[in-house]
Design brief:
mainly alpha; globular
């Protein structure tokens, strides 16, 4: 039985919206000396709330289901079990990391599998963690899907804005462009403001990078940052490990270039850059090898099988619904095949769907965004600052991080999605950094704040 994702409890949504607005105003007041909060925080807050509300309308009334709804359903089941059946065991269900039908109480299994038909999530550790996080949030939202979406949007906004302030501190004269990158990209507003894996991973990634900068660059050895780093790492790795794998090489280079800029000057910086890039490549290979040895899911064979599974499933969806699939041509997921198709996969990730591929209204909106980013790409690389910046990117840690992360993650999701409906969700963690890269590419080097 499919439940309704709307109820009378949703009538409390205006009160929650007022509560979040009050908290937003308090955050602005607390950061009274920071002009970024005064200028951008409330406006970005309303963008997020609008994205959360639109997501709710589409998934509750149009699709009447989907991954987001599945996470929410199981979260409410956990809450009901804890509140009305067995409080102590309910806490174990929500805050432990076990999975598998046999490990759940019969009441939870019956409710999830037979009442709502969503029992498959109980054996998927990644989806299960998302449902558990949803459970913790939704219990404070009276198990309302609308209110829970608003809460996810608000909490994720705080995380994204925090990283936005860091980028603006490094490039203070380009805050307007960076506000677009972090606060106004439509796909990120929509997919990053709801109950789903992408919202959680984007939020954790922003906090991770912010804490990384505080600890390793500013040497601010604060307890809160030391606690946040492993927590964010754990959550991202547990839900979408490939995002963490894509970020690590960039973070390594980000760290080394910052120290290089402090210790070296002039031509020595540029001579040292190829060495740092080599370090990032080696770190990525060593990380992959370590993961392959420790976790069988990261072995080359398993990754190829997963990619082929994605391709088969999304091709089937394309055939059944005549929808939004794309092709990379013939590929067997060997190393040579992946290298050959990577440029096309990256182009599709960053700029697709292309106008001639549009099949419906949703694809049309995605295509408009892709074409706008293609325009920004052309403008950035044709500007005098952009061209000179490419040759000096080795002394720009932020730019190099954004580039490495965008390329690695962009190729990864482009090679495995084969469907624009999935791709538009999978790529949102890289979109703020790709947009930042295009904005900052036109920034004069002499104005960069180290």
């Amino acid at each position: 039985m499919r439940p309704n994702f709307y109820s009378l409890v949703d009538l409390f949504a205006p009160l929650y919206l007022l509560l979040f607005y009050f908290l937003a105003e308090r955050i602005v007041a607390k950061n009274n000396n920071n002009l970024l909060y005064k200028k951008y925080f409330i406006g970005g807050f309303w963008y997020k709330m609008f994205g959360s509300f639109c997501f709710y309308l589409i998934y509750a009334f149009y699709y009447r289901g989907g991954d987001s709804c599945t996470y929410f359903i199981n979260g409410t089941v956990f809450n009901e079990y804890m509140l009305f059946e067995n409080f102590g065991d309910g806490l174990r269900v929500i805050f432990s990391n076990f999975s598998g039908y046999e490990n759940f109480p019969a009441w939870v299994y019956y409710k999830s599998a037979y009442v709502y038909g969503e029992g498959y999530i109980l054996i998927d550790s990644r989806a299960l963690l998302t449902a558990r996080i949803s459970s913790v949030v939704s219990i404070f939202c009276l198990n309302s899907y609308l209110c829970t979406n608003l809460a996810f949007g608000f909490l994720s906004y705080i995380a994204v804005f925090k990283l936005f302030t860091l980028f603006c501190r490094l490039y203070p004269e380009w805050s307007q462009g960076l506000s677009f990158a972090f606060l106004k990209v439509p796909s990120v507003i929509f997919w990053g403001s709801s109950v789903n894996k992408d919202t959680i991973c984007l939020s954790m990634l922003c906090i991770l990078i912010y804490a990384f900068y505080k600890v390793f660059i500013q040497l601010n050895i604060s307890l809160k940052y030391l606690l946040v780093l492993p927590l964010c790492t754990y959550v991202i790795f547990s839900i979408k490990s490939y995002i963490l794998v894509a970020a690590i090489p960039g973070l390594v280079v980000f760290l080394l270039i910052n120290y290089q800029n402090k210790m070296l000057s002039g031509a020595a910086r540029y001579l040292f850059t190829p060495f740092l890039v080599a370090i990032s490549v080696v770190s990525l290979l060593l990380l992959y090898q370590t993961l392959s040895d420790t976790f069988s899911e990261f072995s080359a064979d398993n990754l190829a099988k997963k990619a082929e599974g994605f391709q088969s499933w999304h091709t089937q969806l394309q055939d059944e619904s005549g929808g939004s699939g794309y092709s990379l041509g013939e590929m067997d997921f060997s190393a040579g095949s992946i290298l050959r198709t990577s440029p096309l996969a990256l182009a599709i990730t960053l700029f697709g769907p292309f106008p001639w591929q549009v099949r419906n209204a949703v694809m049309f909106l995605s295509s408009l965004e892709g074409m706008y980013f293609f325009y920004l790409f052309l403008v950035a690389f044709s500007s005098s600052y952009g061209l000179s910046k490419i040759g000096k990117i080795g002394v720009e840690p932020v730019l190099l991080f954004c580039l490495l992360f965008t390329v690695i993650l962009g190729i990864s999701v482009g090679l495995t999605s084969f469907n624009y409906g999935a791709l538009v969700r999978f790529k949102i963690p890289l979109m703020p950094f790709f947009a930042s890269f295009l904005v900052l590419l036109r920034q004069p080097l002499k104005k960069t704040q180290k």
